[in-house]
Structures are given as structure tokens and as C-alpha cells.
Amino acid sequence: MRPEDATLYPDGSGLKRPVSMPGQAWVIALAFAAVALGVGAWWGSSTIGGIEDSVRLSLATVEENLEREVSYDIPQITTLLDLDNDSILAKFEEEGLAIYNLGIEGEPAGDEEEGEPTLNVMKLPSDVSPSDAAVMLSRGIANLDAARAAKLLNGSWTLQVDREAGVNDVVRYVDFGSGSVEAAIESAIAIEGFDPATVAEDTQGVDDAGNTYKQGTVQYNDATYTWRISAIALEEVYDIAGLPETAVYVGIRVME
């Protein structure tokens, strides 16, 4: 028996034993570490590989969307000049074009009972449905990735008809095939059947916005109209990485 006033010291002999893992525990720990290292390496490799595959897939999709067979069917604007909105849409329907309504903008031209509001429509590629177009357009073309932009823009065009101050019809589209701004303008002149001889020295050049343009005149139904074709690199309009640098944004305008 110890005296009641004696100090009690706990037994610390267990703390003096060597701090080491048994051999079997070391084997198990090393095995877990090896498995963890292997899983980490596999995950990292899979992630990097997945990103690379995704990039390759995206580029392939852009290329496929640009090489697919689509028809632009760009209208000759002069054939629309004396048509009202309903007649223009009926003409497109007869031609089998898929037309998406971008919305009526502006106020009626002239007398409200006789004038018509601006017509603003988009001709869709034959393999793009109106519902798919609605989703892509709701995001904004500038916010699309290259694959979706190529899908929508290759084979499409927009038409805006504004009669507020006389006839002012504009068709806009992206030319992926011509390869240069100058070639795209010449292609547009040929599509519309315009006479390049009507272009004067002072009605061609580069405007303040950076567009290269040519302007001339055309006769239709005993009236003279002015046509103007403007073109600029697509990347100056939409900053979408992955689209060809040679793509050209083209505008064709016919006005009184």
C-alpha cells in the first residue's frame, strides 16, 4: 500500500516503445499508395486525352459542317422589288426554301393602312430545323461554338426588306468558298446578275467600317435601282474561334 499523500505517476513504459509500423502494415500502405498513384495517373491521362479528343472532334465537326452539300439559293433581289411581304414569302415557299421568321421590325412605311412593316427572315440550311435554328439564334450567333456556327451559317442567308424610305432590300450571308473578300464580291455580282461595267472608280473601295465594296446600277421594270455589295472578313463580325480565316461576310443591297 502507498501512503495517501504519495504522488501517483502513470505508467509511461508504452510510450518508450519504438514508433514503427509492422512489416505487414507497411506492405498494405505501400499497396494503397501504388493504387492511388495509378488511379491518379489514369485519371489525369484520361482527362487530358478526353480534352484532346474533344478538340479533335470539334474541329472534325466544323470541317464536316463546312464540307456538307448545301445549297444557298440566294435570291436575285431585283425579282423581289415589286412584291409585298406575303408575295415574297409565297415565292420562297414555292421554291421549297425553309424560311425562319426573325421578327417584324420597324413601323409601317407611309400610311399605316397601306404600308408594310419591315420583313426580316432567314433562309435555313436544308438540314437545320426551325427548332434547332431557334435554339442557336436565341444564344446569339457570336456566342455559338465553331461547329454550331458552321452548321447554321453554311447554306443560310438573311433578307431584310425596308420600305420606310423607298425600296431597300438587303441579303446577308457568309461565303465560305470564295477564299477572299474580292472573290466573294465578284461571286455576289455574278449571283445577282449585276453588270460590273456600271461600277465607277468612285463607287468602289473601302468604307469607314472596313468593308470592301462595289456599287453600280441595275434596271428593273423601267426603273433604275442602285446596288451595293459589301464584304469583310467574317472574324471582323463574329469572333468565333475555329472558323476558317478565309470566311467572308457579304451584304447585297438594292435600293431606290
How would you portray this structure in words?
It comes from Muribaculaceae bacterium Z82. This is Teichoic acid transporter. Keywords: Membrane, Transmembrane, Transmembrane helix. The radius of gyration is 34 Å and the shape is globular. It is 33% helix and 21% strand. It starts with 22 loop residues before the first helix and ends with a strand. The protein is α+β, with helices and mostly antiparallel strands. It has two domains: 48 residues; 186 residues, no CATH class. It has an eight-stranded antiparallel sheet with strand order 1-2-3-4-8-7-6-5, with helices on one face. 22% of the residues are buried. It has five helices and eight strands; from the N terminus they run H-H-E-E-H-H-E-E-H-E-E-E-E. About 11% of the residues have low confidence. The longest helix is centred in the N-terminal third of the chain and has 45 residues. Helix 1 packs parallel to helix 4.
Name the features.
Teichoic acid transporter, 5 helices, 8-stranded antiparallel beta sheet, 2 domains, alpha+beta, transmembrane helix, transmembrane, single chain
Shape label: globular
Which strand order does the major sheet show? Answer: 1-2-3-4-8-7-6-5
Number of strands: 8
Order of helices and strands: HHEEHHEEHEEEE
Which ranges are low-confidence, i.e. pLDDT below 50, for 5 or more consecutive residues?
A: 41-59, 105-113
Instruction: Please tell me the total number of domains.
Output: 2
Main beta sheet:
8 strands, antiparallel
Helix content: 25-40%
Quote the distance from N terminus to C terminus.
122 Å
Strand content: 15-25%
The number of helical runs is: 5
Which structural class fits the helix and strand makeup?
alpha+beta
Mean of residue pLDDT values: 82
Radius of gyration: 34 Å
